[in-house]
Amino acid sequence: MFQLGERELNKRNLGHWLILLVIICGIGGAVYGMHRLDANDKQEVTATNRKHAKQSRQAIKTDAAQSKAQRAGKVTTFDKKHSGKKTPLFTAQVNRTLKAKRFVGTALIVKNDKVVYQKAFGYSNAAKKRKNKVTTQYLINSIQKSLTGQLVMRAAQAGQLQLSDRLSQYYPKIKNADKITIRQMLDMMGGVTGDVAPATTLTEKQVYQYAQKNAKINPKKINHFDYQPISYVLLAGILNQVTHESYYKLFYQQLVTPLDLNHTSFGQLWRSSPKRTISYGGDKPGLYQEAHTPAANDMAAQLATGNATMSTGDLFRAERAIIQGKLLATPAGAQVLHQATTDLHYTGGMYHYDQTGYYGHGMGDYYESTFVMSKNGRTGVIFLSNSFEKKTMFPKWSTEQTAMDLFQEINTAKKLK
User: Fold this and answer.
1) N or C: which end of the chain has fewer CB within 10 A?
2) What are the residues facing 362 on neighbouring strands?
3) Region 123-145 average pLDDT
């Protein structure tokens, strides 16, 4: 009897172990299956990212090619190095100032439409020993908003929209969109908040959909300055709705082609180019550490707010034309866009600089960009750098204030020596 009981007990124990083994195998299989699904999901996301990036790149490439075919492609004085021999004291001062800042990039200074200083510093690709040039393109980051503002004003003059239009006319699903206007969005006073930072690479249409979904309007912030890039993504979406053209096509047709800008592009094209400018991080400029290329999903998402690349000369010529209203049917529209007679802080994509001019500044992806221009657009300072990590270098190594100081000097001086 005892032996039968022991045998029966062993059978039960064996059964328990078999059940446990089945459970373990089941859990293991489920975990394996989840890993497989996760791996498959990641592969699908990667494939989708590549597909969207390729679609966007091809569309922009087509717009760029059409523009190139229509441009004269002339080499201007803004595309040449200027040693500053006619103003030796001023040139030596600028050289000392920029070297003290360990500046890496290109600097351009213009007085009354004449280039008085243009020089490139450091490397565009340190690994390949390729130096920056006066025609080198840099990511201009937030300065792009001033170019987007110009496109909006152009549409307003064409009767495609009015600055007094409510956001709800174009994006009725955004709560409180009936409380703010295009004018307020241009001036960052619409109370619009929300990040545009998708984890995947989106097409242009998807960027607009993403912005609409993530945009929120804080009624308490309406009529108060609050810098939010998403406002300009929504403005680009409005342009798309009223013109039935992509933002990129408008940019090329209405800015690049008429101004014959031959050193201007977009991050989606430029990041895959073998001659692209590499940006660098680190504790201070010029160390060429942490070589960086902007991510494809970021370049797609920064539509209208920070994915354009330009040389210093192209940027000066573009900002001059925008300030002077040269690209508008009625040049006085530039005064409306920038509310030139007001003391507002930010209008139409630019900051007001005292009562003497305008300025723009951007930082991101290890680039820093600054322009300071006179109210007539004829005098200005442009600094574009590819060695600037905001987290570790701002404000100590920033050349934003340097640009402002030099602008004050050249704008008030009767003659530079």
Assistant:
1) N
2) 369
3) 97
**398 occurs within a structural domain:** yes
Spatial CB neighbours of 371, under 8 Å, sequence gap ≥ 6: 143, 315, 316, 319, 359, 360, 380, 381, 382, 383, 403
- pLDDT over 90 (residue 7): no
- Tell me whether residue 90 is in a domain: yes
Tell me whether residue 374 is in a domain.
yes
Number of domains into which the chain is organized: 1
Of 8 and 84, the structure prediction assigns the larger pLDDT to 84
Range of the domain at 139: 78-150+245-412
Q: Strand pairing partners for 347?
A: 350
140 inside domain: yes
pLDDT band at 31 (very low <50, low <70, confident <90, very high): low
How buried is residue 130: exposed, middle or buried, by Cβ count under 10 Å (0-12/13-18/19+)? middle
